[in-house]
């Protein structure tokens, strides 16, 4: 299930305010377990290939990026935040998927919508031992507006031609053989390994 938040909630989180009921919605205090998540292979909805909406994001150094920077690679693009309980249970499974698929030329791009950007993500990765994933941020949540969604997590698959071919609104367990096989099939199979960034 996706965590649906209004723009007011995003603003409250960004300002460090406690919006009524927000803590329970975001799953604060829940342990980072994937055992209660559905297998992403079954939850992932295939769509007719369509170009994704234009949006940008930044790396930890502040460099502005778009999906065009990864042209020719298969992509699993995930929008998440450190304060989102379902996101934090899902993220380790995405890290595991990334490790499995990098040799096939497919990478996971976890894009955080935390308003404080890399300052929130870098310590979160360190504290929770998230390895092998880049620090990517969209502090203004412009990508969520481009995709016309208010909830996270949201994951989209981008094939090697740059088209969106599947999406999952809500969290899933990406660390399963069935999911890895489905991602390979949907993005266009195995290609030479990509360089980890």
From TrEMBL:
<dbReference type="InterPro" id="IPR013766">
    <property type="entry name" value="Thioredoxin_domain"/>
</dbReference>
<dbReference type="InterPro" id="IPR050553">
    <property type="entry name" value="Thioredoxin_ResA/DsbE_sf"/>
</dbReference>
<feature type="domain" description="Thioredoxin">
    <location>
        <begin position="26"/>
        <end position="192"/>
    </location>
</feature>
<dbReference type="InterPro" id="IPR006311">
    <property type="entry name" value="TAT_signal"/>
</dbReference>
<dbReference type="InterPro" id="IPR017937">
    <property type="entry name" value="Thioredoxin_CS"/>
</dbReference>
<dbReference type="InterPro" id="IPR036249">
    <property type="entry name" value="Thioredoxin-like_sf"/>
</dbReference>
<protein>
    <submittedName>
        <fullName>TlpA family protein disulfide reductase</fullName>
    </submittedName>
</protein>
<dbReference type="InterPro" id="IPR000866">
    <property type="entry name" value="AhpC/TSA"/>
</dbReference>
<keyword id="KW-0676">Redox-active center</keyword>
<dbReference type="Pfam" id="PF00578">
    <property type="entry name" value="AhpC-TSA"/>
</dbReference>
